[in-house]
Design a protein that fits this description.
The chain is an alpha/beta fold. The chain is built from twelve helices and 15 strands. The strands form three sheets. Strands 1-5-6-10-12-11 form a six-stranded mixed β-sheet. Helix 3 packs antiparallel against helix 6. Keywords: Hydrolase, Manganese, Metal-binding, Protein phosphatase.
Length: 348
């Protein structure tokens, strides 16, 4: 199979694999075993096809040993790239997806499947959703296949003390009876970069800015693997939040890191010579929300979050001239489908 045929197959399999087309079924044990045997022979592009066809369409499971292969390869790729990823636009920036695999596929359907579009995801791939393994495995496959076009930052839910509690550990055990596989994911998560810089002007992270942050060089020097479980610059990048009406920093209501006000944001943008901070970490009603005279934007990419919120999802499109616009994925109330509504906001 050549690259063109493989990419065409990925697109075709994705197009018939959406949950709203009613293709999710139960897979028998012997089918999973047969699939696992075949996976040993496949390259990564063919593996992406199998993931999509047999997990999305049939709710199948990937073999434990093949998951470990993905994690090991992804770990190597993450460590081979800088702790501060410097990305040339154009790029599409996505926030939390939290195991909402069908909605992740809809984001790709609207924005273009890799490598037709460049992507930066801001973390929180697991926990709370129903298909955490499908979500993280597909994204890691794309990272392996297109390391210079597809970028993933770490979120606070890519920390063992969090995803041990909020669903990912339980899913690994329920579907694989494999704490070993869960631990392999943690080893990979600790190698993920925490920050990215788009076009030298847009600083991206999962959480927010830190009182310890003084220069971009600090971000380039972050050591990985890192635990990020105690008070530190790394923790703030994963956990900090902007707070309306606040001046300065104050202890975060989450019990980790800080909240910061628009004054801190303005000073940080000037110090780092950037125009915008793009982050995720918080549910926002329209999928994106500006803060501090439009110097910060929160992006959230899981619509109808946890089945409890009536929020839209968004991805931010940054073009070659650093002009930003948003594409919106809105939930349709009372139905199991969503629809995309483009929204343009001009320059960031």
């Amino acid at each position: 199979m050549n690259e063109s045929n493989a990419n065409d197959m990925i697109i075709r399999l994705l197009s018939v694999g959406f949950p709203d087309k009613g293709l999710t079924k139960t897979v028998k044990e012997n089918e999973i075993i047969a699939l696992c045997r075949e996976l040993v022979k496949l390259n990564i592009l063919e593996f992406i096809c199998i993931v999509i066809k047999n997990i999305t369409q049939l709710n199948a499971k990937i073999a434990d040993n093949n998951e470990n292969k993905i994690e090991v390869k992804a770990k190597e790729i993450f460590l081979n790239q800088s702790s501060l990823i410097e990305i040339d636009p154009p790029v599409r920036i996505c926030g939390d997806t939290h195991g909402q695999y069908g909605d992740t596929l809809r984001l790709f359907s609207r924005g273009g499947f890799p490598p037709t579009s460049n992507y930066l995801f801001l973390g929180d791939y697991v926990d709370r959703g129903r298909q955490n393994l499908e979500n993280i495995c597909l994204l890691l496959c794309y990272k392996i296949r297109f390391p210079n076009n597809f970028f993933m930052l770490r979120g606070n839910h890519e920390c063992s003390n969090v995803n041990r509690v909020y669903g990912f550990y339980e899913e690994c055990n329920r579907r694989y009876q494999s704490p070993r596989m869960w631990q392999a994911f943690q080893d990979t998560f600790q190698c993920m970069p925490l920050v990215a810089l788009v076009g030298e002007r847009i600083l991206c992270m999962h959480g927010g800015i830190s009182p310890q942050l003084k220069s971009l060089q600090q971000l380039r020097q972050i050591q990985r693997p890192c635990d990020a479980s105690g008070p530190s610059l790394e923790m703030d990048l994963l956990w900090a939040d902007p707070v309306v009406g606040l001046t300065g920093f104050q202890a975060n209501m989450r019990g980790a890191s800080y909240g910061f006000g628009p004054d801190i944001l303005a000073t940080m943008c000037k110090t780092l010579n950037i125009d915008l901070v793009a982050r995720a970490h918080q549910v926002v009603q329209d999928g994106y929300e500006f803060f501090g005279s439009r110097k910060l934007v929160t992006i959230f990419s899981a619509p109808h979050y946890c089945g409890q919120f009536d929020n839209a999802a968004a991805m931010m499109i940054v073009d070659e001239n650093l002009v930003c616009s948003f594409q919106i994925l809105r939930p349709t109330i009372g139905r199991g489908i969503t629809r995309m509504v483009p929204t343009s906001v001009g320059k960031c």
